[in-house]
């Protein structure tokens, strides 16, 4: 009898421990499943550049209003210089434009660039990096000619930056222009607030082919979206496998035929 009781107690202990372990694993899995749901931006992107644009377009437009630098240029430079916000210098120092110390009295970090461990400016918040970028251009005589250009002349600005010595890369203007046109950043150079500007993403559809996508905004209809992208409503429906014309704000539609 005693042996039977001992076997029963032993079985009970094993069962209890087993259940406890399972509960812990379940909690851990729950934590993993909820991690990342509180994204810093309302959109979900397959393209890190699109995420960067939504985060920093309002800052770029604010700087454009104050300093007359095209928002498209500021965004394109930020995307290029910071690796769309994922570069080491940006992560360590909130430095989105690769601006070096040059008499800077604020925070500093050292980072390999043209030479080993060069001094770069460090900011507490990205907004200070955007403001310093504006001041860097506005307060130096060599960039003065750029401010005679129209805000809509992003190509002139891109080429002028290279001519004034902002970058040594000969292809710097072409890189900026390519980013601006690929993501239609010139739309931010107008009076429309950033939150109302078309938001594009990119998603890989098959193999190496890339399709452009559009996020539905307030007031959009299937007809207006189709017309904007030189499509018919029928084409847009077919691309997105839509049976009707009902769409919702925040919905992503492929707009590449």
Distance linking N and C termini: 79 Å
So what's the oligomer here?
Answer: single chain
Fraction in beta strands: 5-15%
Number of β-strand runs = 5
What spatial order of strands do you see in the largest sheet? 3-4-5
Rg, Cα atoms, Å: 26 Å
Report the total helices.
Answer: 9
User: Largest beta sheet, briefly?
Assistant: 3 strands, antiparallel
Instruction: Give me the secondary-structure category.
Output: mainly alpha
Helix content: 40-55%
**What general form does the structure show?**
elongated
Low-confidence stretches: 1-5, 7-46
**Mean pLDDT over the residues:** 79
Q: Which series of helices and strands comes N to C?
A: HHHHEEHHHEEHHE
List keywords for this structure.
disordered N terminus, mainly alpha, three-stranded antiparallel sheet, about 260 residues, two-stranded antiparallel sheet, 9 helices, about 45% helix
Description:
The chain has 257 residues and is mainly alpha-helical. The chain has a three-stranded antiparallel β-sheet. A two-stranded antiparallel ribbon has the order 1-2. A hairpin with a 6-residue loop joins strand 1 and strand 2. Helix 2 crosses helix 3 and helix 3 packs across helix 7. The longest helix is centred in the first third of the chain and has 33 residues. The protein is elongated, with a radius of gyration of 26 Å.
């Amino acid at each position: 009898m005693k042996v039977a009781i001992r076997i029963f107690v032993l079985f009970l202990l094993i069962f209890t421990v087993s259940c406890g372990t399972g509960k812990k694993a379940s909690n851990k899995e729950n934590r993993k499943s909820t991690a990342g749901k509180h994204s810093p931006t309302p959109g979900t992107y397959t393209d890190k550049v699109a995420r960067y644009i939504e985060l920093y377009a309002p800052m770029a437009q604010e700087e454009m209003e104050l300093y007359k630098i095209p928002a498209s240029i500021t965004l394109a430079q930020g995307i290029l210089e910071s690796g769309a916000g994922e570069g080491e210098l940006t992560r360590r120092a909130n430095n989105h434009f690769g601006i070096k110390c040059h008499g800077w009295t604020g925070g500093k970090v050292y980072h390999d660039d043209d030479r080993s461990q060069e001094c770069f400016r460090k900011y507490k918040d990205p907004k200070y990096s955007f403001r310093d970028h504006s001041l860097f251009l506005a307060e130096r005589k060599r960039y003065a000619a750029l401010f005679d250009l129209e805000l809509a002349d992003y190509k002139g600005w891109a080429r002028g930056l290279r001519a004034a010595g902002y970058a040594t890369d000969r292809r710097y203007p072409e890189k900026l222009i390519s980013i601006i046109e690929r993501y239609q950043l010139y739309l931010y150079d107008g009076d429309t607030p950033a939150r109302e500007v078309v938001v594009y993403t990119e998603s890989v559809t098959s193999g190496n082919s890339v399709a452009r996508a559009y996020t539905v905004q307030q007031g959009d209809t299937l007809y207006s979206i189709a017309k904007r992208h030189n499509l018919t409503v029928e084409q847009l429906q077919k691309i997105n496998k839509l049976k009707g014309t009902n769409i919702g704000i925040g919905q992503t539609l492929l707009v590449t035929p």
